[in-house]
Design goal:
Elements: H1 2-13, H2 20-23, E1 31-34, E2 37-40, H3 43-50, H4 54-65, E3 69-72, E4 75-79, H5 84-98, E5 109-114, E6 117-122, E7 128-130, H6 139-142, E8 151-155, E9 158-159, E10 165-169, E11 172-177, E12 184-193, E13 196-201
Parallel strand pairs: 11-13
Antiparallel strand pairs: 1-2, 2-4, 3-4, 5-6, 6-7, 8-12, 9-10, 10-11, 12-13
């Protein structure tokens, strides 16, 4: 009886399984233009939906946008002129890198440090992986280019905030509509923005 009770408690502690799209309800970024700055007014609510520290999310966005910024009073402010798409793309990258499990695709993960290495551990399936740094990619990878109208074979290694497959080619992060993690697909590049590319399966 004690074993069965312990088993029941263990099952109660497990997160409910389901698709990432159904379980990860992230509010759209609320933005305000303030002269030469853009304010991200609901960054705490977005971070809370992702179960992440808002300052960690802020620092990722700041680095991704390549600008200076501040985080105080529950709001983040970034120097420069940026569009809603810039922030949404940055959030997609954040989810793929710091939230989504690369094995089961669920967002039930925790960021932990093990031997000075930041790891993403999944509480749903038990998988774990180190957080990769795009800046440490090999020089050979950095030379790979992505051009609008081109088609490239890519491996889908993650899932974006809106359910698109995520792949990497050199310095580029490619979001492939309709692709799923684990697939190798031919990606037709519809558009690019900085080191981001948006594609569909060819």
């Amino acid at each position: 009886m004690e074993y069965e009770a312990s088993l029941d408690r263990a099952y109660d502690d497990l997160p409910e399984l389901g698709t990432e799209e159904a379980r990860l309800d992230v509010p759209d970024p609320a933005l305000e233009t303030d002269g030469a700055f853009v304010r991200f007014t609901n960054i705490e609510q977005v971070a809370d939906a992702l179960d992440r520290d808002p300052d960690h999310l802020h620092r990722h966005i700041q680095g991704d946008l390549g600008t200076s910024g501040t985080f105080e009073g529950g709001q983040a402010r970034y120097s420069g002129s940026f569009t809603r798409a810039d922030f949404e793309n940055s959030l997609d990258e954040y989810v793929a890198e710091f939230v989504t499990c690369s094995e089961c695709g669920l967002p039930d993960t925790r960021l932990v440090k093990e031997n000075r290495t930041q790891m993403l551990r999944c509480t749903a399936c038990g998988a774990f992986r180190p957080i990769s740094k795009r800046s440490t990619a090999s020089s050979g990878q950095q030379q790979e280019t992505v051009e609008e109208g081109g088609t490239y074979e890519v491996e889908i290694t993650g899932t974006g905030r809106k359910g698109d497959g995520v792949a990497n080619r050199g310095k580029y992060t490619i979001f492939v509509a309709g692709a799923r993690e684990g697939e190798t697909v031919q990606a037709y590049i519809k558009s690019t923005s900085g080191d981001l590319a948006f594609a569909r399966k060819a």
